[in-house]
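Summarise what follows for lecture notes:
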Amino acid sequence: MQKNISKNPNKRELDALMSTGEIISASLLAMCLSSLGCQSISYNAYQLNIHTSGDHGKSQIDDINVSKIEESLDHGKVVIVTGFQGLNDEGDITTLGRGGSDTSAVALAVKLNAKCEIYTDVDGIYFTDPRKYSKAKKLKEIEYEEMLELASLGAQVMHSRSIELAQKYNTEIYVGLSCGERNGTYIKGENKMRLEEKVITGLATSDDDVAITIKDFNLDKVFSLFEDIASKK
C-alpha cells in the first residue's frame, strides 16, 4: 500500500505504519479473550517504554519497563504485548527488523525471569529440513550454540538474534506448533551431564550456494571463471 504513495518512503514514517499491525492484533486478541471471560489487557511500546537504539527498520532492544506487566499479572490478567517495535531516544516508534517478534518475546522472558515459548507454523526443530527430507526427525532439545550454527547456515525456524539474546541470559526457549498437541523442541544451555560429545545435531542446506575447487591456482584463470559466472546471471 505504501508503495502506491511513495516508492521511497521516509523510514521513520514507514516504522510508524508498520507498527500499527501489531497494535491492532494485540487489541483484538485482548477483546476476544475478554469476551470469553478471560480478563486481559494489551500494551504497546509507548505504554511499556520498550527502549530501542539503532536505525529505523532494524533497531535493537535496550530495555523494557515491565512494572505494568507485573502489576496486571498480579491482578490476574492475561497480558498481551506488541512485539517487533520500540521507542528510540527521540520518542519515535521503531521496528526491529528480521527476527524482531521472536526477539521481543525472548527479551520479555529475560526481563520477567521466565521461560519463553514460541508458537509458530512448525511443530519443532528438525535435524534437517523435513520439506526436503521426509525422514527428518524432530529434536527434543538443542543447545544454543547448535541452534545458532543451524540458523547461520540457513535454518529458518528461529532467527539468530533471538537465540543470541536467550544464550546471553540463559533463557530457555520452547518452539512448538500453534494449533496442535505434538511436542515441540527446547532450546537451552549445554547439557553438562552428557558423557560423550554428539557427532552431529543437525544439517542445514542451501540451494543458493556453490562450491568451487581450484586445482591450478592461476589468478587470471580465477578472475576469468568468475567473470563467466557473472555474465550468465
